Amino acid sequence: xxxxxxxxxxxxxxxxxxxxxxxxxxxxxxxxxxxxxxxxxxxxxxxxxxxxxxxxxxxxxxxxxxxxxxxxxxxxxxxxxxxxxxxxxxxxxxxxxxxxxxxxxxxxxxxxxxxxxxxxxxxxxxxxxxxxxxxxxxxxxxxxxxxxxxxxxxxxxxxxxxxxxxxxxxxxxxxxxxxxxxxxxxxxxxxxxxxxxxxxxxxxxxxxxxxxxxxxxxxxxxxxxxxxxxxxxxxxxxxxxxxxxxxxxxxxxxxxxxxxxxxxxxxxxxxxxxxxxxxxxxxxxxxxxxxxxxxxxxxxxxx
Amino acid sequence: xxxxxxxxxxxxxxxxxxxxxxxxxxxxxxxxxxxxxxxxxxxxxxxxxxxxxxxxxxxxxxxxxxxxxxxxxxxxxxxxxxxxxxxxxxxxxxxxxxxxxxxxxxxxxxxxxxxxxxxxxxxxxxxxxxxxxxxxxxxxxxxxxxxxxxxxxxxxxxxxxxxxxxxxxxxxxxxxxxxxxxxxxxxxxxxxxxxxxxxxxxxxxxxxxxxxxxxxxxxxxxxxxxxxxxxxxxxxxxxxxxxxxxxxxxxxxxxxxxxxxxxxxxxxxxxxxxxxxxxxxxxxxxxxxxxxxxxxxxxxxxxxxxxxxxxxxxxxxxxxxxxxxxxxxxxxxxxxxxxxxxxxxxxxxxxxxxxxxx
Lengths: 303, 358
Fold this sequence. Notes:
The complex is a heterodimer of chains A (303) and B (358).
Chain A: H1 3-30, H2 38-56, H3 59-83, H4 88-107, E1 120-122, E2 137-139, H5 140-158, H6 160-170, H7 172-177, H8 182-208, H9 220-230, H10 235-248, H11 251-258, H12 264-268, H13 270-284, H14 286-292
Antiparallel strand pairs in A: 1-2
Chain B: E1 2-7, H1 13-37, H2 42-50, H3 57-82, H4 90-107, H5 116-142, H6 146-166, H7 201-218, H8 220-230, H9 232-237, H10 242-269, H11 280-290, H12 295-318, H13 324-345, E2 346-351
Antiparallel strand pairs in B: 1-2
Helix pairs in contact in B: 1-2, 1-13, 2-12, 3-7, 3-8, 3-10, 3-11, 3-12, 4-5, 4-6, 4-10, 4-11, 5-6, 5-10, 7-8, 7-12, 11-12, 11-13, 12-13
């Protein structure tokens, strides 16, 4: 397998944890709430998903419990940000610290245990194409994530529910004036984001690298937050950004596979360095950023 | 009938002082339940966590030792937080500060010059400032979000540390451990309290706290940063530069974290090793907020956070509580504090009919 095939085969799976978390955060931010606790919520989902899958042998159950756990911890954030009208930046950081602490506490007895990952499903026909074919042999969660991205795009842009969420994010006072409960909608959007972060973590710990190690999320939650900005809150662009970062995060393994002698620490820095670079490039276009960004993002709503 | 929050006419002083106390009590109760649910001796854990650090001179001296870097970093970060500049990458700035300070003893392992230590401290400060300066440059020049940039820079700093310790800076006589040569005596901070590990960095942290207090209360720049945080538009009408606020916030925070990193390697560690990154940079964020972003409050909250660290070490032995128990307690503390903070500016009102508030 050459380097191109290696990256094509792995980039979708590598992108999936970041993509799941970023899609959830995108919906939360569309409703006007900035949740900076994603990294910790992913860690909690990873711990819960691993524990349940390890004990029950069922990946599906692991994902369900991780989603529930992510949604539950995100309600602590919702209580602070919506109920107590706290600063969203600090509230997100606080819940993130709590969630990652809980993940290490709960996961402690499972340290360095391993699981069996999910089998790969090949798309008939497409998977036989030379070179590019490896792209179409992925586990079921990768395919479901892509379908979910499509569904989120459809709901956000072409449904009444999506319109309400966007209205709450763009102009909460107007949304309230026409009879929608800003707090309820935002609470639901936060819960969705939390559940997605939980699923993202579970994918990382039970499928992508099926083992539990403390700190295994390793910044992927923060990259997911950055992806929402790169994608300027548009589903398609977020998906594209996640694929790019999925490929970049394989640089480390690819170099080893082709036998290049570059310090592994330098290669491990590539996704972080590119995140900084992309943030600078996308954010410097202030006009475009303002056009797409959410008007009430991060601002508390006191009705 | 429902409960709602109504804004007070003026901030409640009582609530301001009660908030951290309420948060501490609620965190203790919540962790009591949590630890018990995990099958740990919860009361023993809590006793070790909160009281044992005060029960022996050695334990308390360790509290003072750990309080110094937490206090120093939190004072630096609070300058930015008051202006709504969110530097959450102090951990990375601490690592780079420690690396910069370590360069001298690595290059001159037998150095005896009296200038070695002051130069190391200066290099640590500059290292931290340079690392935070990258975020300031990207924020002012390209509008890049400082939260994400400082965090990514921390992840990069960790890799730089790993690279140096596994490669060029590894002690050739260190049995292949990822650590540098032990520092010569000229590169070590003098001990402040004989018989303990407490060094003069504690005095430094207290001086920094006094400076932060004076700067906030009396200096124009403190006012300027406060205004640009609370009302950026008003600040720019008044001629305060937002750019300058961002630069000052990040450089002061980076300097404090870099200094703390230099003091760690020249103090309790005595060499550069992986354990230089133990999360002080993240914990200092909690210290800053728990202290109400007030220099005096931060002195108290740094001591509290340090008690939790030392108590956590004790609870690990006495109650088999994993280190993560401390992180959970810290998280609970900040969550409950943020919730109780609401009552400083608001009071709870029971509404009988909808629309009857105010």
